[in-house]
Amino acid sequence: MTDRFDILIRGGRVVDPANRVDQVTDVGVADGRIVAVGDDLRGRAERTLQAAGHYVLPGLVDLHVHIALPSAPGAGHAMLARAGVTTALDLSGPAAGVLAGAAEGGGAGLSIATLELVKPGVQLPPHPSRAEIRRALDRILAAGGLGVKLHVDAGWDAEATGTIIDEANRAGVWVASHCGTTTAGSDIEGLRETLELAGDNRLQIAHVNSYCRGDVADVAEEAATAIALLRGSPHVFAESYLAEINGTSGRCVDGVPANRRVIRWLEGGGYPGTEEGLRRAIRDGWASVPHVCGDDVVLRTGEEGVAAWEAAGTPSGVCLPINPGVSRLLLGASRNAAGGFDVHAFATDGGCIPRNVTLSMGLSMVEWGLLRVDDLVRKACWTPARVLGLAAKGHLGVGADADLVVADPVARRPRTVIAAGAVVAHEGLVLGRGTRFISTARGEEAVEAATGPGTVIDVRAGGLYTGDGLA
């Protein structure tokens, strides 16, 4: 056993289900790795953290974030670090933009990967051939991305959606979907259609809770339907988030929101589905406007929120409280007959959108008895690490990457966050710098040119394709 530690964490409750550890003990870190876990560790430590009364957990692995924010390129990184996330997958891209943002904003010491949101008429024709899809995939990989993201608002039809999913599987790259096409909405029917289009192909289903907002049936009924649909597609990776707010465009054209879903949401909140209705909702505090404040993004309401929204000419994003607690909790806690989770992981759809609440809301679910602490770690750390194929992350075994969170169980927030053996955030202050970018071998050269040497993975070897973590 080593007699030297860069960081020694003493007396915390270490919760690491991958290694069947749940006990008050010590954790030693050296050279970016976990080098010892045990009682009363002895040795010289450069830094000692007293963790009595706190949880010591693996760093969170969030497989659905949005990091890029042109007006504050470092904010998404800093916000994730404060929330205890040490590894994240951006579901917008493009890779060049995420890499440039990481370099310009300085990063926060996290491990980051990205997909690229593909749109008809932009990366691909509206009805792409398989050859055109393959060429687009190769370009995305070469730029440092892991694969593609499909989105209902992009306007893909069902045939193109199915073909892109199939071609991504043939290429062994990552593919994720915000469900819905030109024939189905972003709702429970969109989830049903997407699973049918995917067939036996592998796919990440983004934010399952967002298809269970009561648009088609009762919220609890929609959640039960979503669970049944996912049980019928056990090869598909599903995640959901725990925040009440969504994030969407506040852009208005000719006096009405450009996104028709915003019209419906406003009307559901008791406001006219118009630009003036959105203005009133912000003024009343029902809707909020994300506003950059240093390396953070905060939500503004009232006249301050209206001013921020109007200053951007109304294209500013808005957040609306439209995610019912019933579906969030049912989907977060639901288990199948084998004891596994129907929705495999927690993700935030956050990053630079201020809803990075997996740890705080997850610990609330622990207090309510809906989850155990080790369940939370499985869903927020261990399972997503396995799905991404990062065997050294998501757990605290000797030899694992030293990605950890010391969390206050009463305040339900991270106190200290460690990534690759360095403290990247402490009491809300972000200290980490740089980014460890995760790409395939095809993108290694682009990543090194932008942010320095990164981590190379084979997507096909991870759980998205092998099923590791999906049982």
Automatic annotation (TrEMBL):
The keyword Cytoplasm does not apply. GO terms for cellular component: cytosol. Residues 347-419 form the Amidohydrolase-related domain. It holds the Pfam family Amidohydro_1. Its cofactor is Zn(2+). Keywords: Hydrolase. GO terms for molecular function: hydrolase activity, acting on carbon-nitrogen (but not peptide) bonds, in cyclic amides. This is Amidohydrolase family protein. It comes from Nonomuraea pusilla.
